Amino acid sequence: MSRPASGAAAGKIGGAGRRSRGVWLTALPLYLFTIVFVAGPLVYMLVLSFQTKAEGWGVEQVFTWNNYLRILDPVYLDTFLQSLKLAVSTTLLVVLIGYPFGYFMAKLSQAWKRRMMMLIMIPFWTSSLIRLYGWMILLQAKGAVYQTVRFLGFDIDPLKVLYTYPAVLIGMVYALLPFMMLSVYSSAEKMDWSLVEAARDLGASPMKAFLSVTLKLTMPGLLSGVILTFVPSMGLFFIADILGGNKIVLVGSLIQDQLTRGADWPFAAALAVVLMIMTTLLIFLYQKVTHSTELEGLF
Amino acid sequence: MEEMILSLRGIRKSFGDAEVLKGISLDVKQGEFITLLGSSGCGKTTTLRIIAGLEQPDEGRVILEGKDVTREEPHKRDVNTVFQSYALFPHMDVASNVAYGLKIRKVPKEEQKKRVKEVLQLVQLEGFGKRKPSELSGGQRQRVAIARAIVNNPRVLLLDEPLGALDLQLRRQMQLELKRLQKKLGITFIYITHDQEEAINMSDRIVVMNAGSFEQVGTPDEVYHHPRTSFVAKFVGSANIIHEEGKTLAVRSENLLFAKQGASDKYCVRNGAVKEKSFAGGLLRVVFVLEDGTELTASRHGIDTDVREGEQVKIGWLPEHAVEVEDDLPEEGTGNPGTGGRMPREKLEAAELKGDRS
What we know:
The structure holds 2 protein chains of 2 kinds. Chain A has a single domain, classed as Orthogonal Bundle (MetI-like fold), CATH 1.10.3720.10. Chain A is 74% helix and 1% strand. Chain A has 13 helices and 2 strands. Chain A has a two-stranded antiparallel ribbon. In chain A, helix 6 (128-139) packs parallel to helix 11. In chain B, 24% of the residues lie in helices and 32% in strands. Chain B has helices at residues 44-52, 94-104, 109-122, 138-150, 168-185, 196-202, 220-225, 230-237; strands spanning 4-15, 18-29, 33-37, 59-64, 67-68, 79-82, 156-160, 188-193, 205-210, 213-218, 239-244, 247-252, 257-259, 268-280, 283-290, 295-301, 312-317, 323-324. Chain B has a 6-stranded mixed β-sheet, sandwiched between helices. A 5-stranded antiparallel β-sheet of chain B has the order 13-17-14-15-16, with no helix packed on it. In chain B, strand 14 (268-280) and strand 15 (283-290) form a beta hairpin. At the A-B interface, helix 1, helix 9 and helix 10 of A face strand 6, helix 2 and helix 4 of B. Chain A: Residues 80-286 form the ABC transmembrane type-1 domain. Chain A: It comes from Cuneatibacter caecimuris. Chain A: It is a multi-pass membrane protein. Chain A: Its main location: membrane.
């Protein structure tokens, strides 16, 4: 009776166990690539973060905890907090806009799906930097955004549109929204909508059916969308630089600053390590909270 | 008048330009097993979806226990569906799937557990509660789908070709089990199938559907022995349709006899040639072509007969086996009402007819 039952699971386990030498050989380039280009730099960064900045330019091979202790300085802690705040609000907004978009896109006809996909992809044909300068023009004093807000009857200071926190938030959401839309879409596209009908048939209101069936089944897409949004938004310093002026300093900008102007590589490395650990922990926490283990198109 | 649990009144439904349901009406009694029988695309699934509330009719009313529920949302109707694809929730185990409706209705946890256990026992799936739907076979999934629906004790259970995906043997077994279950629970079943054997085996009444209309509503016996239209005769009884003097007659293949020559004057007889012979399902089928090009099929027990392909034979049937039906081919017009009388027939000698009626 249980023969078909264990089929799917056994297939996976058996596949891993029976990995022959031939498979190892074909996978070897992948391992080499990963070791050289992912693990290598990471280890180098970790080592670097415990070394000492040389006088003038370069690194001295002297072990120290100082780089990490420096991060505890309120100025830097505040930067981490700012970054976290921006990343969380960006992710939240992206979820609120991107999830419904991906959900409804999956319900469109084939022709309209293609058209929507096209509309999402077109901006990627231009450099993201150029698109950001486009936002600068829109957000500038007495620019299109200002005019629109005025037209809607709100009175705002024309000088307080660009180089503000909302401007940075707009830029971040704009840059990261497509990733959420696409990963929710690919999850929702695979959904069997008759399950929602079954839920309605069994007595669930539309909201209840959405929460207990649709949301659960599109969770992999939502989760990978959140990761694709949250992780980059902790480090996307150029958006904050361009749209926020120098008023909003994020960990990303701080690291870039330490690498270039400060020439303090070990401190930059320490900041990067802490950022990475923080991001990983938050994603781990998020996964625990949502009970999601599957990710759409990732891992 | 007997209390009707469900009534459909003049339901019409179109998708775009295609009219899927052309004004259908039906009354269903409490505890009845009703089958909607028809080929794919005849509108039977749409009828079911309208009863469930998953589709809105353009016209007409759905009345459940005397209450008009036409515009009522699906979750507010005391009707449950067993979907063709089963539509089990893949992220829940069997017990949670079955308990879903109870949980939504906020039935106490203890009661939920008890009822889930009972229903799983009823469909012979005790001990499967912790399995995921992906770990079950087709037949087991089917049972879970039934359990998930009947656990809510609906007034009416709708079943959309529930056995369609199962192999023949399992299907026969499940037919009996479903019938047993329906008797035991006393729930009204509205069952969809395109398999006439299934319909005849299980139903109290059969609704034969064709192109969005009800061709005939009746007991299996009525539908099989007294088809109202040529469509019903062909679809349910695999009958031959014979046009004679402006009348349309239906003769089932087992009542069609053939011989090289001669027949008694009790029989209506035609001349024809043997087109092909085939043996299937314990029966020999012989196809004849009449002089006017009509094809007739006769079946009899055995694996072969002495007529050869291409040979000229006499084909005959007893008048009482010919049922006059309405012709529903549009170019022929609708048939004339009234029961069929005696048909003129060629007189032949009785002794020589090799009749093998079954």
